[in-house]
Amino acid sequence: MKLKPPIKGRGAQLNIHNRFFQLSHEMRDDFLEFCQKEGEEADKNKTLYLEVFPKTIVNKIESPDVGMSYSMNPYQGCEHGCIYCYARNSHEYWGYSAGLDFERRILVKKDAPKLLEALLKKKSWKAHTIVMSGNTDCYQPAEKQFEITRQCLELFLKYRHPIGIITKNALILRDLDLLRALAEDNLITVNISITSLSEDTRRILEPRTTTISKRLGTVKVLSENGVPVNVMLAPIIPSINSHEILPLAKMASEHGALSIGHTIVRLNGAIGEIFSDWIKKTMPDRADKVLHQIENCHGGNLNDSRYKTRMRGEGKIAEQINNLVRLARHKYFKGSKMPKLNLDLYEQSKDGQLKLF
């Protein structure tokens, strides 16, 4: 059945209260009725790009189970609108809602390249893989206009510094020249997120993301150009995409991916309310079933914050999902793995030029 969310092109269907604010804002029925009578739009549903000025751009990751030590995010908020996105909660720290604001108030860090270069030139900095998009996608639609990610890639190449990228947008192929050059020195890995092979599912889960066929094509092009690719089947949501694990893994392998990763959805913080509202509006026939199965994976709760457990879940449903992923790895990726990145070239290139001796 083809389903469309009520608010066109958006994942969240509401702006929920920011937990850090004493006052709350609501769209009253009498105001909506007034707008309808006057022929006015109550909500223009436009995306705003707002420049911010952070003091640093690279963050040290303290969590022991996320698979990265350092991350950087040229943008805060993400227009992709993925309804399950764990990063939604971070928007509250900037004074916005984790709901629609997260998708429509995009904070742009134009100084990111300057801040990155200042870090890479520090004598005290030692090479560690820095992952772009540890929080929000560095190739979201804003990147087409601002090209901050590309400027940062040029710096990683200049200083021969290792980098990881997480994205679900085919826009990454715009920078194939830089990616290929980084790959020649074993300085880059790319993680492409693919959550479904169904376009109907993709449209309601991730309304402003690139199509599945383009994402698979991106995996193929990167792989053919020597850029190592891991496909993230993340998150796996019971009764929405959990039945697609094996076919997803097969397609990833056939398009050249070296490995797959996965997480089981957890609806931490404000996301529980946002996701529950969304699924009751877009999938009313199975909303309760999906929510109860998510709870089954996390000890009766929609969220689980325990390290080592929160990503994989527990209980029978989580066990079935994790077993399927293990089977997929054995069947389609046996003997294949992502390379370790080169940490040695950076020390020779700190002045921006590779030394001969």
Structure description:
It is a single chain. This protein has 13 helices and 10 strands. The strands form 2 sheets. It has a 7-stranded mixed β-sheet with strand order 2-3-6-7-8-9-10. With 357 residues, it is an alpha/beta fold. Helix 3 (112-120) packs parallel to helix 5 (148-158), helix 5 (148-158) packs parallel to helix 6 (176-184) and helix 9 (245-254) runs parallel beside helix 12 (316-332). Strand 9 (229-236), helix 9 and strand 10 (259-264) form a beta-alpha-beta unit. The longest helix is centred in the last third of the chain and has 17 residues, at 316-332. Helix content is 34%, strand content 12%. The protein has a domain at 45-263: Aldolase class I (TIM Barrel), CATH 3.20.20.70. It is globular and about 65 Å long. Residues 1-5 have low confidence and may be disordered. It has helices at residues 29-38, 100-104, 112-120, 142-146, 148-158, 176-184, 199-205, 212-224, 245-254, 271-282, 287-297, 316-332, 345-348, and strands at residues 48-51, 58-60, 70-72, 75-76, 105-108, 130-132, 163-167, 188-193, 229-236, 259-264.
Structural class from helices and strands?
Answer: alpha/beta
Count all strands and give the number.
Answer: 10
Biggest sheet, spatial arrangement of strands? 2-3-6-7-8-9-10
Q: Label the overall shape.
A: globular
User: What is the CATH C level class of the domain at 45-263, in words?
Assistant: Alpha Beta
Domain Radical SAM core: 64-301
GO molecular function, one term: metal ion binding
Protein name: Radical SAM protein
Keywords: Iron, Iron-sulfur, Metal-binding
